[in-house]
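yo, HTH cro/C1-type domain-containing protein is done. seq:
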Amino acid sequence: MSRGYHTSWRVPPEHREDAAYRAAGRRMDFAQAVYERRSALGWSAAELADRAGMTEEGIERIEESGVDPTLELIEQLAAALESGASIDPRATPEFRFVSRAA
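structure:
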């Protein structure tokens, strides 16, 4: 009888402080935040792209962690997603889009 197995990644503490590791984490948090807010609004990637003045491929690259979150891009997407942005390096995830109070 097969029970399967689980793999867990253990990142040594010295690697967690590496600039490339931190940058990858920011891209992943940003990607997740965009996807979660877009999904909460019930929008497709194409609809968000249209609202943000971007291409659907651009939104997909963001949601695949392929784009660094610049301030200009964060502002552009926050406006399109009808939200504010919260960045806190002490929290996990570090980045969130926050719905605006009505």
